[in-house]
Backbone:
């Protein structure tokens, strides 16, 4: 059983279950006595203004009277500068944590707070395609089932998994199936934006906030208001910016760089990382309160080697999707399919897509890009416009030096080693010896990059000094 934040995913029984921590408010005194409301979002506001989550038609209640904010410790009751004050179990408060059974007073109304766990059974979806995701394996259909259940909520989602496993596709599908589908979906790659610019990228800035800020600009959170913001590679976010992100998550408000005005935002947050954030917390590289705040509903995207039954359906999906307009998709030989099925796919689904796309562009056999196959080429379904096979292969190998009597397998392995060594050296020089950046540039899992560097005895630090 996985214990992650407020969510538990049972793997020891069928069907799997998710226990979502929820709470409800019941009006026990006042004009709307008996009204009950379940709190599903991270920020819940009460008042008589129509934009509140719970609208109370009581003249003694302020337009925006109080808010309940979920954080790592529990549920925090916060007065919103109301006229008549907010009371918790008879005592006036500005901010305090609520206990089970507590009574909140607002004007002439009183509301009882009751936390509870909602147990949701997650049946594997009957679908093999959800959004742009393809999968018939049990792990993927469980993820499909979970997405179908939580997409309609505003619950914060943390997606973990290796590079190339489709974390962005999970995020997009969650947005597409949500009530926010017609609103913006804004992506911020926290690992790709320079450290000096990431704060402006997220929060925006005012004119003159820093050198080069010749005009004000909106950040991702403001642009995404009403929709979803997807924070990719969140594990790369600097420690000094993490408290500011926590404020947005807990209060749904922000201040631009160089600004003093508080801006309210209405959005859903989905985060993704290839890092183990729990381990990063233990190392002091990631804030624990931010981790628990993000880890409301965790999803782990499985590697492609852990769901091999999805490889061939994905191959067919990409062949159809990437085929030139007006042309039938290529047809693969049994040997090619066997080679694709046997490959380890260290770059996961992204690597598979790249292989198929490159094969179609070059008119070559995709299996030859991952394993020696012999002489069974890729052919088209139609007899017209045939490409692939020996002619295309010869064109692609023009200029290489071959040795008579050396087998295809040995020749391919030798040139593959030459390619890998040269590519790794070029990649590390370009990244100035930064292995994390090199892995991102190559769409490669960092552990696999380390493995290749050890295989060829390449020192990243030396290449970075050149």
Residues:
């Amino acid at each position: 059983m996985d214990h992650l934040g407020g969510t538990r995913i049972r793997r020891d029984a069928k069907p799997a279950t998710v226990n979502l921590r929820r709470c409800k408010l019941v009006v026990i005194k006042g004009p709307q006595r008996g009204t009950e409301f379940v709190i599903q979002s991270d920020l819940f506001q009460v008042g008589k203004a129509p934009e509140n989550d719970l609208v109370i038609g009581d003249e003694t209640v302020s337009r925006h009277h109080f808010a309940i904010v979920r954080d790592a410790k529990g549920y925090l009751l916060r007065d919103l500068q109301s006229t008549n004050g907010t009371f918790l179990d008879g005592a006036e408060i500005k901010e305090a944590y609520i206990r089970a059974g507590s009574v909140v007073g607002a004007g002439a109304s009183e509301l009882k707070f009751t936390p509870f766990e909602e147990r949701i059974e997650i049946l594997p979806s009957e679908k093999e395609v959800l959004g742009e995701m393809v999968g018939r394996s049990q792990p993927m259909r469980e993820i499909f089932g979970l997405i179908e259940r939580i997409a309609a909520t505003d619950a914060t989602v943390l997606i973990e998994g290796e590079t190339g496993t489709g974390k962005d596709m999970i995020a997009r599908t969650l947005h597409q199936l949500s009530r926010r589908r017609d609103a913006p979906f804004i992506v911020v790659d926290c690992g790709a934006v320079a450290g000096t610019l990431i704060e402006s990228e997220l929060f925006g800035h005012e004119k003159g906030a820093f050198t080069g800020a010749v005009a004000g600009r909106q950040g991702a959170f403001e642009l995404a208001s009403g929709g979803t913001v997807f924070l990719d590679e969140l594990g790369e976010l600097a420690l000094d910016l993490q408290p500011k992100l926590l404020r947005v998550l807990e209060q749904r408000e922000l201040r631009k760089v160089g600004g003093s005005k508080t801006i309210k935002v209405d959005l859903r947050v989905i985060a993704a990382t290839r890092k183990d954030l729990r381990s990063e917390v233990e190392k002091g590289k990631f804030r624990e309160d931010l981790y628990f705040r993000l880890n409301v509903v965790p999803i782990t995207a499985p590697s492609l080697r852990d769901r091999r039954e999805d490889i061939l359906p994905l191959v067919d999906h990409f062949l159809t999707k990437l085929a030139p307009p007006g042309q039938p998709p290529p047809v693969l030989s049994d040997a090619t399919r066997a080679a694709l099925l046997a490959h380890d796919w260290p770059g996961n689904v992204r690597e598979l897509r790249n292989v198929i796309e490159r094969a179609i562009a070059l008119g070559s056999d995709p299996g030859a890009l991952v394993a020696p196959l012999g002489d069974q080429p890729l052919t088209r379904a139609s007899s017209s416009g045939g490409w692939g096979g020996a002619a295309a292969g010869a064109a692609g190998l023009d200029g290489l030096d071959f040795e008579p009597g050396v087998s295809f397998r040995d020749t391919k392995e030798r040139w593959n080693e030459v390619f890998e060594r040269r590519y790794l050296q070029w990649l590390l020089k370009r990244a100035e010896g930064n292995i994390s950046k090199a892995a991102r540039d190559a769409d490669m899992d960092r552990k696999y990059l380390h493995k290749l560097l050890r295989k060829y005895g390449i020192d990243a630090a030396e290449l970075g000094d050149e």
About this structure: The chain has 15 helices and 24 strands. Confidence is low (pLDDT under 50) at residues 1-13, 372-400. The longest strand covers residues 16-29. Residues 408-430 form the longest helix (23 residues).
